[in-house]
Structure to design on (789 residues):
């Protein structure tokens, strides 16, 4: 799964570091276990030589170094993954100075996106390429998690709180996502999709969306005024 | 005999024994209670396996409609509660409760009735959970996160049944743990200083303390959820002063602690089995015991590792990461010493050792994968995916099923006077080992490479995880077959196993000094404990006495 945002790029690197660390642990333990079982320990192999305090300290020290190395790498890359990248040259002109803020609302079992200028959409989030986007995650009912692995770290939408996730898509295209906290019956169906488009297409989408919302609003008002809806 | 009548007591034999089940049901003896707990937990292992298979069947092909979402969620919720509350914890606790008093040379427990009510609370809790089938079982997931578990979102009584069941069982565990703590503090045999306690008894002490702490937290959380649901409480409601994240904190403290408890029990059992079957004393005994204690504390403090995507401060996330990465040291030291002990001796490759080695191997895979999940940024990618399902299952199935069967094979002769079948034991081991790898390794791939989410009732065509899930389902069936073989082995061997001696494996701790199965009072005479290997001292003393007797016989004049 190729990363398509500066943050997920760092996460991807750390994922490989984690994979290597896990592989070292798993291979070391299982090879040692196998070798120990194969070995016919001689009568002279005194357990004191393997179990002495000096040996325990050395093994403990080596393990501590290993853990510390993972911790340091992990801190470095976690910190990098959080740094908010500025919008790039090809991004939305109005979002150069501060990120484009969109509100994402988790509700059983659909995501709603509210754009800064009054437009909204369900399920599909449309964002401009090369532009830093900040999602404000909120929930109207239970805990949901917004998870589009190629673009952004997972973040929980907890009722009563606002969580933030920042990403900058580096390529146009569709990115699959889902909700990743168990949220009841239709949890598996609670997916989302991020469509990354050029800034011009984004502006056009917002205009289209606003026009469509206005048309729907006019129709409702028209129907009520004509007395067609009780 | 004179003709004058004298009053005398006439006994026509002993009073008739009551039926076995009444004896068991009314007994406060720690061995009876331990056996019922172990037996019941194995029964629930079978039920959990059936539930797992139903879920795996549903997830064998994309967009399957075998189970409705509601039924899948019920299976998921019941599976979680059954595997943790009705199988893994009671199995560990049952083994502790049976063996720790024997290992410390006690003739019983300090507060036997407390243990008895503990067992019954656990059994009643289990009955309550499954009585949910009479109305609606819980649908709130493995960990019923508020506010999903609140009345507004799940208005039927399923979550209430979950609360009552898990609350009663947890209360039972806490009572048993209190009795174990009291027993181990007050009733050790003469000379049985803490430093001479067998490692498994240490695991029992550490595990009991851990259970008292985390059990209290869970009981508080469950009480709060019940108040929320039934008495208009607002503990976990957002707004009006409540906090949905509070449930996450409380419940993850319990579940993380329970995870550690299961591993402590498994590694404690392995630390008894490995030395006996390699003919060498445990390497670094003090280090192993100390590491178990450190795991209990630090491991539980890492609870926020499960909340790395929640809106909590980055400082708390780093705290969780430091705690869980620090676990590398104690776990590494224990595994090092177990392997060093194996390497120093010549392994007698019998079923208990096979399962113990399997447990170490599976736990190493789970904990190795868990390292990634400790790294904050990686957790932002892998948390809530099936990758974490696989890591958790390797550690916990490795600990509770492989470790549990290792302990069962090892101590079965002590509990029943018969051995478990060796051939069937080996067959079940290899089936389970292959099943584990086939069932859960594909989920690592599906979670890491394709981000498949955990706990979902279906996955979609074209998300690239169809092959992985099909293989995982096949693996789950192989694993289930292995587990069933193991359970059948235990059932058959109870009455049909080969007779075992009182010290079947040549163990060094005091439970092997008792008869097999032990008398109700455990020991006719209490030995004077002089070292951390009292049974070995007794064997040596008997051998010496035998030699002296022979010398004396040889020295006697023939005439």
């Amino acid at each position: 799964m190729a990363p398509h945002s500066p943050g997920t790029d760092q996460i991807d690197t750390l994922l490989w570091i984690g994979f290597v660390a896990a592989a070292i642990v798993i291979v070391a333990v299982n090879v040692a276990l196998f070798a120990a079982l194969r070995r016919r320990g001689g009568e002279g192999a005194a357990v004191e030589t393997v179990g002495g305090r000096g040996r325990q300290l050395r093994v403990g020290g080596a393990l501590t170094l290993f853990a510390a190395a993972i911790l340091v790498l992990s801190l470095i890359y976690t910190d990098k993954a959080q740094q908010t990248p500025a919008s790039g040259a090809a991004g939305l002109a109005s979002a150069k100075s501060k990120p484009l803020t969109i509100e994402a609302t988790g509700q059983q079992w659909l995501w709603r996106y509210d754009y800064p200028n009054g437009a909204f959409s369900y399920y599909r989030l449309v964002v401009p390429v090369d532009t830093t986007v900040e999602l404000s995650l909120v929930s109207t009912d239970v805990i949901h998690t917004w998870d589009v692995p190629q673009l952004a770290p997972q973040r929980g939408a907890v009722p009563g709180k606002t969580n933030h996730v920042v990403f900058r898509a580096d390529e146009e295209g569709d990115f699959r996502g889902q909700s990743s906290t168990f949220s009841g019956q239709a949890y598996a169906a609670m997916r989302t999709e991020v469509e990354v488009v050029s800034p011009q297409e984004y502006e056009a989408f917002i205009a289209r969306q606003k026009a469509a919302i206005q048309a729907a609003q006019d129709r409702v008002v028209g129907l009520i005024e004509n007395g067609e809806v009780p | 005999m004179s003709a004058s009548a004298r009053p005398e007591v006439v006994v026509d034999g002993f009073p008739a024994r009551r039926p076995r089940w009444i004896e068991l049901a009314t007994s406060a003896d720690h061995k009876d209670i331990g056996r019922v707990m172990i037996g019941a937990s194995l029964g629930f292992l079978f039920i959990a396996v059936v539930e797992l298979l139903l879920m795996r069947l549903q997830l064998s092909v994309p967009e399957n409609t075998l189970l409705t979402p509601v039924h899948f969620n019920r299976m998921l919720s019941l599976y979680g509660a059954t595997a943790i509350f009705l199988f893994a914890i009671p199995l560990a606790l049952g083994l502790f409760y049976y063996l720790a008093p024997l290992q410390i040379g006690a003739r019983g427990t300090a507060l036997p009735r407390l243990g008895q009510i503990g067992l019954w609370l656990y059994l009643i809790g289990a009955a309550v959970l499954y009585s949910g089938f009479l109305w609606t079982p819980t649908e709130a997931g493995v960990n019923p996160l508020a506010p999903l578990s609140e009345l507004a979102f799940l208005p039927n009584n399923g979550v209430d049944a979950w609360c009552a069941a898990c609350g009663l069982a947890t209360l039972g565990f806490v009572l048993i743990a209190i009795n174990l703590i009291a027993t181990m503090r007050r009733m050790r045999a003469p000379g049985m200083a803490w430093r001479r306690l067998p490692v498994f008894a240490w695991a029992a002490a550490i595990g009991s303390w851990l259970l008292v702490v985390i059990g209290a937290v869970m009981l508080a959380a469950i009480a709060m959820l019940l108040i929320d649901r039934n008495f208009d409480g607002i503990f976990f409601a957002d707004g009006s002063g409540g906090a949905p994240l509070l449930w996450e904190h409380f419940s993850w403290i319990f579940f993380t602690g329970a995870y550690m408890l299961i591993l402590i029990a498994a590694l404690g059992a392995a630390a008894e089995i490995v030395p006996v079957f390699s003919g060498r004393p445990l390497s670094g005994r003090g280090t192993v015991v100390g590491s178990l204690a450190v795991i209990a504390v630090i491991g539980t403090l890492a609870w926020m590792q499960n909340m790395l995507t929640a809106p909590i401060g980055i400082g708390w996330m780093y705290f969780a990461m430091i705690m869980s990465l620090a676990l590398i040291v104690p776990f590494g030291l224990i595994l090092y010493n177990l392997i060093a002990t194996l390497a120093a001796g010549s392994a007698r490759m019998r079923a208990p050792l096979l399962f113990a080695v399997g447990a170490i191997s599976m736990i190493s895979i789970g904990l190795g994968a868990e390292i990634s999940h400790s790294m904050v940024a990686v957790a932002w990618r892998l948390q809530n995916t099936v990758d974490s399902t696989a890591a958790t299952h390797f550690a916990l199935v490795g600990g509770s099923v492989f470790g549990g069967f290792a302990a069962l094979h090892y101590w079965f002769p002590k509990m029943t006077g018969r051995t478990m079948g060796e051939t069937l034991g080996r067959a079940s081991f290899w089936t389970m080992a292959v099943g584990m790898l086939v069932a859960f390794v594909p989920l690592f791939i599906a979670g890491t490479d394709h981000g498949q989410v955990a706990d979902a009732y279906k996955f979609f065509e074209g998300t690239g995880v169809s092959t992985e899930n099909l293989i995982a389902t096949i693996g789950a069936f192989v694993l289930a077959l292995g587990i069933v073989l193991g359970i059948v082995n235990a059932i058959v061997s109870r009455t049909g196993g080969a007779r075992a001696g009182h010290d079947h494996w040549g163990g060094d701790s005091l439970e092997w000094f008792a008869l097999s199965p032990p008398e109700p009072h455990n020991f006719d005479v209490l030995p004077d404990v002089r070292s951390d290997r009292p049974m070995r001292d007794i064997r040596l003393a008997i051998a010496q006495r035998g030699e002296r007797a022979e010398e004396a016989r040889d020295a006697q004049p023939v005439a």
